Amino acid sequence: MAFGVTLRAQTTKPKPPKNPPATVSKIAYGEHERHVLDFWRAPSDKPTPVLIYIHGGGWVRGDKKEVPYVQKYLDAGISVVSINYRFTWQAQLAGVKPPVSWPLRDAARAVQFVRSKAAEWNLDKTRVAASGKSAGACSSLWLAFHDDMADPKAADPVARESTRLWCAAVNIAQTTLDPQQMIEWTPNSRYGGHAFGFMDPNDLKTRDTRFAEFLAHREELLPWIKAYSPYALATADDPSVYLFYTDPPALGKSPRDPTHTSNFGVKLKEKLDPLGVECELVHPCATDVKHERIEDYVINKLGTNTPVPKSNRTTRRSSLRQADILAAMEKSADWQLATEVNPIHKPTGWVMGAFYAGLMATADTSKSPRFREAMIKIGETNKWKLGKRVYHADDHCVAQAYIELHLSEKNTRPDKIAPTRERFDYILNNQKTSDTLYFDKKRRGNGDRWSWCDALFMAPPAWIGLWKATGDARYLDFMLSEWSATSELLYDKEEHLFYRDSRFFPPRLEANGKKIFWSRGNGWVLAGLARVMNYLPKDHPARPRFERQFKEIAAKVVTCQQADGFWRASLLDPESYPNKESSGTGFFVYGLAWGINNGLLDATTYEAPVMKGWAALMSCQQADGKITGIQQIGSSPTAHSDDNSEPYGVGAFLLAGSEMYKLVDKK
């Protein structure tokens, strides 16, 4: 109780003393008039740590002159920087989406600029901390939890510098920009909508008046929310943080100042503690407080005698190496090939066909010839034939690998694709396009057309691949026509997800009342879109609609990813199927990473979900290479054994790895 009194007393202390003149003022770190900073140099013969202060004001007002206790830091041998940044209302007027990207990206740029001045300003590049109040505090936490934004290949030397922090110490921080989390933690929340454009840029009084509208649009904004919320970005390798609040927590209640409530701090600490990230939370009712004030914490943490924290990596991404990704791919491919000595699945069926797609991706990624040789041997054993069902998409899947082998040869031989061409020519001459796509258990021939969403992975890449191999436009035209028919029936234009087939249309619903959208089924589609667009020319008239559908599904599925990086078997009812499911997750990671690598998806928004998804997949790889957590063969969300493995899930893992390999190389 006595300590609570101490903290309440300090909130009424006099304002910090006047700061000394800056060593240099109004230094430009960018091109905008708000891209300026002030620098105070601490006297020292050795490079000094540096604190970067980000002012408050809700990202709509404020100034760098607000930095407190500069002299105290200088006396402790810590240099200080205080920055201005562009406001969200300026971003709105410029048409930038989301508006919050301007102030946050400016903060990252300022960190890089300060590091670029290390030699000139006598700074220790490694010991860089951030601090701020309110919105500036949120910006500081975003920097602390974000992957390194350095671009080693950039022409601009400033952009090559790291954005990672030694620590962050913040005052009354908003730790999330998710309106649903806000009202769950603090029912009278009103802040955050302006970060995503819910404000009149010509009337700053509207900043906190449109929260209900913000909440109503949450689902479509979730990719942005996840990309710019500190809470969503926090992971185990983040630096330590200090959170200071002037009111006691009141979770589930309506405090006087919901914008700066310590509820934000309580919930962030609840997430960081299990991750092993050091988080010191200070408020009037806190106990076991080591540092009563922000400046005490910063001085202690930045002191030159403080050892480098294990979590302070220059970049999270740098720990993900191409060599490790390739090793994981090769180990799983070898494991699956070894199990096929005693096969249990048809070598020309879809189960193995999906694995072969991953095997070819491994062959294209690895320097070892053994994977391509294995696929050639499989093809020769199969006599390059497809499955027995003439029209069924599942029995066309294996053709994808045959066609890829054919296209990769310098001196192509038609034998690898001759049976595929013979089959597809028969289908073109005896089309079933008059048949309905509705499923009917009493009707034979449900599989004669692409009447289930999985089919969009199984057959279309083979059809367009054969067009690529032969130049015969009939194969491409058939694929485009049939994809359109399937999409028209099964694609929910409101949810931007595919029903597995017509049997899952409402009124059939999940236990929670939501529509039934199967994770792996939509993973098949997203992966199928990527594999079709590998061949579909960018100037083809059909390309825009494929890109549009791909982007719509991608934006939706990232909102369905769970905190551990997995997608559960049911996208909209994950609680009913708690098992970690790696086959749908594998296809989503593949599709999203492909989208980033091919310029269709914004890395700022999608890279974090992809990284989390890959980490989740790696947790399913056993020491011998086996991939577990794969939902068994089926057509709907179901529970499954955590130890279950299937070849198609291994194929998804290998496809995901091939795109992760490219993504790491791009960075």
Mean pLDDT: 92
Low-confidence stretches: 1-13, 306-318
Beta-strand share of residues: 5-15%
Major β-sheet strand ordering: 1-2-4-3-5-6-7-8
Major sheet details: 8 strands, mixed
Structural class: alpha/beta
Counted beta strands: 10
Which overall shape is indicated by the principal axes computed on the Cα atoms? elongated
Radius of gyration: 28 Å
For the terminal residues, how far apart are their CA atoms? 51 Å
**Into which percent range does the helicity of residues fall?**
40-55%
Alpha plus pi helix count? 25
Descriptive report:
The protein is an alpha/beta fold and 667 residues long. Helices cover 43% and strands 8% of the residues. It is built from 25 helices and ten strands. An eight-stranded mixed sheet has the order 1-2-4-3-5-6-7-8, sandwiched between helices. A two-stranded antiparallel ribbon has the order 9-10. Helix 13 (322-339) runs antiparallel to helix 14 (350-365). It is elongated. The two termini are 51 Å apart. The model is unreliable at 1-13 and 306-318 (pLDDT under 50).
Task: Describe this structure in a few short sentences.
The protein has 667 residues and is an alpha/beta fold.
Q: Topology, please?
A:
Blueprint lengths: L1 H9 L13 E5 L7 E5 L7 E7 L15 H6 L3 E5 L4 H6 L7 H16 L1 H4 L1 E11 L1 H11 L21 E5 L7 H7 L25 H6 L1 H11 L1 H4 L6 E5 L18 H13 L3 E4 L11 H9 L19 H18 L10 H16 L4 H13 L16 H10 L9 H12 L25 H4 L1 H11 L2 H18 E2 L4 E2 L20 H15 L9 H18 L21 H16 L5 H16 L28 H20 L1
Parallel strand pairs: 3-4, 3-5, 5-6, 6-7, 7-8
Antiparallel strand pairs: 1-2, 2-4, 9-10
Helix pairs in contact: 4-6, 9-22, 9-24, 13-14, 13-25, 14-15, 14-16, 14-25, 16-19, 19-20, 19-21, 21-22, 21-23, 22-23, 23-24, 23-25, 24-25
